[in-house]
Amino acid sequence: MRLDVPNDIVRRAEATAGELLLAMAIQLYTDNRLDYSDARRLAELPTDVFNQELVRRNISINQYPSIQVGVRKDAAAA
User: DSSP class of residue 33?
Assistant: First the structure.
């Protein structure tokens, strides 16, 4: 998927593409719409930098192991 943001909005926001990705990632993370690893990946930041951003914004860091959708626990253990 490609997401286009009009240049005039980017200029008014005085933001870079990286800042917009980070803002979107953090908002989706705080809304529980993305888990930690997906939000960090969307923000295109290394773990330590993403963690610093969360701490700076007083947002809890919850890193859970990834789950495989559609795989039952008992089937995965077999």
Answer: S
